[in-house]
Known about the structure:
Layout: H1 2-10, H2 16-34, H3 42-57
Amino acid sequence: GAAQIAEDIRMRKTTARDVLEVYLARVERFNPALNAIICSDAEGARQRADELDRLGAEELWQGPLHGVPMTIKES
């Protein structure tokens, strides 16, 4: 779950960028059939993940879900 992913990032078992790439691959694999995500900014997400990894290296955590990828529902 999200809390475990955040803990793994905080404990440096993985990085925000690595987690993001796993989720982007899942979106690429499953979204054509689901059509759940209609607007994406993968490059912006990669830039933000890299920024969060740099901040984490300096112990500048950005909240309890630091580095956990998520989608935003737009109504």
